[in-house]
Amino acid sequence: MPTTNARPARLPPAKGCPRCRTALDGGPVLFHCATCQRSVYAADLTTEFPATLGRAA
């Protein structure tokens, strides 16, 4: 059997509810919080990307 050196795919961090910080279900446009029973649109979530300045591509 051939051996593969494939790395497992990294999953993006789960989006958190703005009210209670519980991980949201659904997406990519409309998310649902199971804890506070709230629907949240993706446009209402803060998305911050880490800066990669100074690193070679």
Q: What does this entry look like structurally?
A:
- By secondary structure, the chain is mostly beta strands.
- The protein has a domain at 16-43.
- It contains no helices and three strands.
- The chain has strands at residues 25-26, 30-33, 38-41.
- A three-stranded antiparallel sheet has the order 1-2-3, with no helix packed on it.
- The mean pLDDT is 77.
State which percent range the strand residues make up: 15-25%
Could you name the ranges where pLDDT drops below 50 across 5 or more consecutive residues?
none
Mean pLDDT: 77
H/E series: EEE
**Main beta-sheet strand count, sense and barrel state:** 3 strands, antiparallel
Total of DSSP H or I helical runs spanning 4+ residues: 0
Using DSSP, what is the number of strands?
3
Structural class: mainly beta
Amount of helix: under 10%
Query: C-alpha Rg, in Å?
Result: 17 Å
User: How far is the N terminus from the C terminus?
Assistant: 35 Å
Spatially, the strands of the biggest sheet line up as: 1-2-3
